[in-house]
Amino acid sequence: MTTIYDVAKAANVSPKTVSRVLNGDLPVKDETRAAVEQAIAQLGYVPSSAARTMRSQRSGLIGLVTGGISVSPLWTQMSGLPEIFIVQGIQRRMESSGKTLLISDTGGRSERVPHLLRTFTEHRVEGLIYVASHHQQVELPELPPNARLVLVNCFDDRGTPAVLPDDREGQRRLVRDVIARGHTRIAYLTLSPTLIATILRTEGYRAALTEAGIVFDPDLVGVGEDSPGDPSSAGMSREVARLMSLAEPPTAICCGNDQLAMRLYGVLRSSGYDVPRQVSVAGFDDFRLITETLFPPLTTAELPYVAMGERGAERLLSLIGRSDPGRTDPDRIAGDVMWRESVLERPRRR
User: Fold this and answer.
1) Are residues 144 and 245 both part of a single domain?
2) How many structural domains does the chain have?
3) Which of 17, 130, 191, 255 would staple 13 via disulfide (CB 3.0–4.6 Å)?
4) Are residues 178 and 298 in the same domain?
5) Distance between CA atoms of 228 and 226, rounded to whole angstroms?
6) What is the model's pLDDT at position 25?
């Protein structure tokens, strides 16, 4: 293996001069630099990043633990969009900062997370990011005191810096805009009640009604799936039948995610209802494989995964640069309402 001494001998300079050229920390004459660079190219010399890390205490490496690679890109269970979109946002921001992102996938096995985090710390990464599959509370192992960790799409009870989707605000904005189109009887079919997103989005739904002066009707809220990620439509069919049999049935139905909305299209049409002329439908996530291929295209609230990834990377970089004030409150990122043709504007009541 070629060493720095071989390069120095070929360029007829000292090893210290070669080091100066490689690190760019001290001035070197142009002709000397050219001779060193030519020797490096001819000998195929590759500098030791490990040695450089030991000298500078900076590896330039960021460790990312995720399950977004091992899952199918069509995976929609619970969160709607896979973690891979968060990873893309992280990668985009890290690339612009000059850091190198090392990605390790859990293979769908959460028990591997502690081992992967420890492995990254052993390899002297400057910081760590853990990306969860959906908005949830996590419990991660203790890391060395100097380890810098940011959580994305999850949080813990230790106050670890975290970036979360603003589920409450996203649902509030969506329902507000549906109300603005003249709807006052708006139903909500939720995901599993055990999910944090369901709790927050239901709060957002109620907040939009309150802001518009519409009295909350508990009969308009139902669970759209029998269990988390359940692909069947049996439970939804029962709920739709109940909703449409009310004395004053809804004119619009919001769904816990776009996958539920897709199934709702089928349930409504099989029951003889036209979307959106008789019943308007809205989703949540903006999973475009669904929203842009349904007919009519689906109005939905965006889950801003790419923006969450970018913000997670920015927060970690500020921790590394010691410019973060050390706050423990999470960053909450709200997405936009993506307005399409599945919600029909209705005449407003006097």
Assistant:
1) no
2) 3
3) 17
4) yes
5) 7
6) 59
